[in-house]
Amino acid sequence: MEPGKRDQPFFHVALNLPHAGRVARRILPLLPDGGPPEGDAAASRKIAGAMIGLLDPCLEMDVNPPDELAAQLSERAASLGRRLVGHIERGGFGHDRLGQCVRNYFECLELGREGAEISLRAGEDPRSIQRPT
Predict the structure, then answer these.
(1) pTM of the predicted protein model
(2) What residue ranges do the domains of the chain occupy?
(3) Which end of the chain has less neighbouring CB within 10 Å, N or C?
(4) Residues 62-88: pLDDT tens digits?
């Protein structure tokens, strides 16, 4: 971990897979539509769709599944979120609202520290009043 990252403020939120699913649904329309099918925009939309598909059963139940399954889903959801941010960053289409949603998504996965860091790569304004202080 880079110096200073450990001290970066973040929100600690309990695991909430249903809300992570809601946030994933908010991310999809914030992504650019169009572009080449092999490009970062198309890949980001595909990954966001996978995030939604993974978390939809939790959203339907409106509760976290049992512990072991919840941990597996959270790990897979975080992996998809990291891939999504890679495409956003490479494609250069990050923006403040998208970055905020990425941070919220990771917070719902109990990864608030990572969310506070990775959201900047997705375009969140570091001076946003929405960021933890």
Answers:
(1) 0.91
(2) 8-121
(3) C
(4) 899 999 999 999 999 999 999 999 999
